Amino acid sequence: MASINSKVIFVTTSPRTPSKMIPEIELLNAHFAGQKWNKETQLAFMELLKEENFFNGEGAKDPSFSARDRINRAPKALGFVTLSPKIQLTLAGEELINSKRKEEIFLRQLLKFQVPSPFHKPTESSAEFWVKPYLELFRLVRHFGSLKFDELRIFGLQLVDYREFDTIVEKINQFRIAKAEYVGNYKKFRAEYLDNEIREIYEADINSGNTKTRQTNDASISKFIKTKASNMRDYADACVRYLRATGLVNISHYGKSLSIVPEKSEEVDFFLQNTDRDPILVDNERQYVTYLGNPLIPTLLTDNRKLLEQKIRSEFPLLEISATATLQDLKNIFADELDNRREQILTDQVSAIKDYRQFEEISTTFDQIITNSLYDNPLMLEWNTWRAMTMLDGGNIKANLKFDDFGNPMSTAQGNMADIVCDYDDFGLTVEVTMQGGQRQYETEGEPVTRHLAKFKKETEKPAYCLFIAPNINDSCIAHFYALHKMNIQYYGGTSTIVPLPLSIFIKMVEDSYNASYVPEPRHVQRFFERSNELANSTENEVDWYNGITKEALNWLTE
């Protein structure tokens, strides 16, 4: 049981991206099911996790803590695993791994998550919790139609008791009025408003001098408020990512706002009207675990045959529904049709991209990423780079990120695969992107990038290269990738041709493709990477190689 000492909504924040827990609990179950969850199994789990690349090197100082951070938080709190008396997947966990439509599994579990619960007990100094956080956040988004990230962060997180829903709504209304009347810089207005709200939320702590935060001896009020503001940003970000995992919520990356997917509004209205808002089984862990792990509750619109048939007919009016089809048959049919529609949308997008019809939009998105104007820059960088690679040249370009039912990017690729893979018939290419900079870039990306390329070469059995893109390239990455050009390592399938390029240089390559008097071909891509091999073998050091290949990138289409 965990004690909660928070005065704002408590939600799960690890893993940051919900889909990341799927391969992790699958790995846990495959190797440790039936065993005790203790330091020994935690250390062993972390060793396996590192090998699978699901975990990018964080928490190396205390691997057992890192294991608990990955499993004891979201997987346990959302009812996908039980850890006592032994490690075991719940029925909901098995469904998450095996189900074709994982969004529905996430939805049911999020709607059941509650505070207080047998897993999470508020302390005397915390807020007086009585809420199913995700259920009420769905309600808040649905109520307003569109909810800004700032509104979620400043006010939505104060919804610690569902009976205060109307109070929070009024606070947001007053914020919007004040914002409309304010003359001046919005960031200053937001900062002042956030400061005032934090002072109100933590008034008792401030008045009593209880302002020292963890990992610092600074007890100043300014440091205290800054820390709480940062924590609230992290909690709000986690809320967005987990709500998004249900496939029911759209996010405007530029406007930084949430809304219900129009085609999903009936489904949202159904569970808002039919799901009990009160936490249950607060003091009965055994029954709570059974309830939480049940993948069939709460009831959703798709569990009602009549309503499901109406839903299918409204979205796919030409589809014939057999009277003998079971409810599960109908669910499978609906899932297949949604998948087919998404694939057709993506196919149409690719056609438009290859015809350069989206060049200006792709260029604008890169500009917004560089200026940090979008909500989720890592996701948008991965998605926009896929679009740019699709436009750049021929080949079958596949993004390993998660798309929603309407072809919009939902979450980045899982950690055990390259972000983008390109098949050019005679050779292949992996593309890895990151917003990380500094030494952190090398620590989290260096080895996984190399391993992804090795895996790709083994699977395709043909020559392959890798393009590594980041806003800025760290010197350690340059040295690492230069050395791999020359080192014949059997574990990585021989030498590894990995070319790191700053995002600005890659954008110039895309512009050159658009402005060329001919359509670039795969041979131009291969020629560029083979030139990297030549430079690696003819230069004295990594600096000369990097400068040389960067210059080549700026003239990659010169015959």
From TrEMBL:
CDD domains: BspD6I-like. It is an enzyme of class 3 (hydrolase). It holds the Pfam family RE_AlwI. The keyword Metal-binding does not apply. Keywords: Endonuclease, Hydrolase, Nuclease. Signal peptide: none annotated. One of its GO terms (molecular function) is endonuclease activity. It comes from the Bacteria. Its EC number is 3.1.21.-. The keyword Magnesium does not apply. This is AlwI family type II restriction endonuclease.
